[in-house]
């Protein structure tokens, strides 16, 4: 009989009680493991879905702006030194940055001033497959433009171009800058600049402006949960010299708040579960000390020091925590997949890691030992003479 066999024998002596305690710890660890796995995937999935509400980085060519006024008459702002982005070169540069996997959508645009029947409007050339990912909140009547002969109108632009005959509807014809085009669809009112614009395919806008392959704006939707947005901006600025790369701080902060809320909620729930498990371990060990006063007295009379008695109870808690940590992590990892499926979360299920298993087992073992400190200390303070008198 030694310091190793005594705790094992004590754990076997009351199997039901110790099994229930181990089950509580195991379920707590499983819940924490599953929560962290689910919160990570749900956070990433949430941020990807938030890209449908617009870009969070803008890339524009550098230009100089001069405010013109004379004699108290303001003539407005004048841009000079205006350049354009080469769409293919810019896309290639973005594809080459180290954090490319954090870039969800790159949507090039070319804004072209145009007129239709004496009405001025802006034609925005876009790649509709990317624009639909970036503007998931868009709703339209009709269909998306499928060719360079079709155009998509904002709600206010349809009213202005329709004139007295009423708003233009899908299927209607419109002549813009000498081009006969068909209205494929009309956007529902968004309350923003989109309402006053006409959206065409990027090649059509480039043809109207005489700027093949050019763009004057790149809207980038970046996933910034895995790294600071400043890192992505810095890499984009380095890859695209002579451009201005700006992060839309308000958009970034709103998205990160949503992601952090999910993770912080999981952390708070995990702490509550962990504290509950600690209280259960402490209460069980304290009850065990009160039940084993005579046994402790015999051990002390046989020569066991206070430190040895303290070690006995700490070792029991260590074994309990180690077994619960291993079983709980495996059970929680197994449950993560079905939980994510039930939540319809989009994202890769976290892979199994031996390092995470070892870290969980070590952490729960430490927590279990810390929870047993007071009961173990109380056991070590039992007076052997008083314990033996009660025999």
Radius of gyration: 34 Å
Please report the total strand number as a whole number: 14
- Average of per-residue pLDDT values: 80
Bulk shape = elongated
Report strand %.
Answer: 15-25%
Q: Count of helices?
A: 13
Short characterization:
With 391 residues, the protein is α+β, with helices and mostly antiparallel strands.
Give a verbal description of the structure.
This protein is of the alpha+beta class. It has 13 helices and 14 strands. The strands form 3 sheets. Strands 1, 5, 6, 7, 8, 9, 10, 11, 13 and 14 form a 10-stranded mixed beta sheet that branches. Strands 2-3 form a two-stranded antiparallel sheet. Strands 4-12 form a two-stranded antiparallel ribbon. The relative contact order is 0.17.
Give the helices and strands, then pairings.
Elements lengths: L4 H9 L1 H36 L6 E5 L2 E7 L2 E8 L4 E2 H9 L7 E14 L2 E8 L1 H7 L5 E3 L7 E4 L1 H8 L10 E4 L2 E9 L9 E5 H8 L4 E2 L1 E6 L6 H11 L3 E5 L1 H43 L1 H9 L4 H38 L10 H18 L1 H8 L3 H6 L2
Parallel strand pairs: 6-11, 8-10
Antiparallel strand pairs: 1-13, 1-14, 2-3, 4-12, 5-6, 5-13, 7-10, 8-11, 9-10
Structure keywords:
391 residues; alpha+beta; two-stranded antiparallel ribbon; 13 helices; 54% helix; 21% strand
């Amino acid at each position: 009989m030694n310091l190793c066999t005594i705790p094992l024998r004590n754990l076997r002596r009351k199997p039901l009680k110790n099994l229930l305690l181990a089950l509580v710890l195991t379920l707590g660890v499983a819940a924490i493991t599953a929560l962290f796995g689910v919160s990570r995937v749900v956070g990433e999935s949430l941020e990807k879905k938030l890209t449908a509400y617009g870009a969070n980085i803008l890339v524009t060519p550098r230009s100089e702006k001069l405010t013109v006024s004379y004699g108290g008459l303001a003539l407005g702002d004048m841009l000079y030194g205006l350049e354009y982005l080469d769409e293919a070169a810019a896309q290639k540069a973005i594809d080459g940055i180290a954090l490319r996997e954090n870039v969800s959508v790159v949507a090039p645009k070319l804004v072209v001033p145009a007129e239709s029947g004496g009405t001025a409007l802006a034609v925005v050339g876009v790649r509709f497959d990317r624009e639909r990912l970036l503007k998931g909140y868009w709703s339209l009547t009709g269909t998306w433009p499928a060719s360079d002969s079709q155009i998509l109108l904002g709600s206010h632009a349809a009213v202005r171009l329709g004139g007295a005959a009423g708003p233009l509807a899908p299927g209607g014809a419109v002549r813009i800058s000498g081009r006969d085009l068909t209205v494929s669809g009309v956007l529902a009112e968004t309350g923003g600049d989109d309402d006053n614009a006409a959206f065409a395919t990027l090649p059509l806008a480039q043809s109207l402006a005489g700027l093949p392959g050019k763009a004057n704006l790149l809207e980038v939707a970046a996933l910034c949960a895995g790294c600071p947005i400043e890192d992505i901006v810095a890499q984009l600025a380095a890859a695209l010299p002579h451009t201005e790369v700006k992060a839309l701080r308000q958009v970034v902060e709103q998205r990160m708040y949503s992601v952090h809320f999910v993770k912080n909620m999981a952390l708070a729930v995990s702490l509550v579960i962990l504290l509950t498990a600690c209280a259960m371990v402490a209460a069980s060990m304290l009850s065990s000390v009160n039940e084993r006063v005579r046994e402790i007295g015999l051990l002390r009379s046989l020569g066991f020091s206070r430190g040895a008695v303290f070690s006995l109870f700490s070792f029991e808690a260590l074994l309990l925590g180690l077994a619960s940590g291993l079983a709980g992590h495996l059970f929680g990892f197994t449950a993560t997949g079905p939980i994510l499926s039930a939540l319809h979360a989009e994202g890769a299920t976290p892979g199994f890691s031996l390092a995470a298993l070892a870290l969980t087992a070590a952490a729960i073992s430490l927590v279990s030992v810390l929870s047993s400190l007071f009961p173990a200390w109380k056991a070590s303070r039992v007076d052997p003479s008083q314990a033996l008198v009660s025999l």
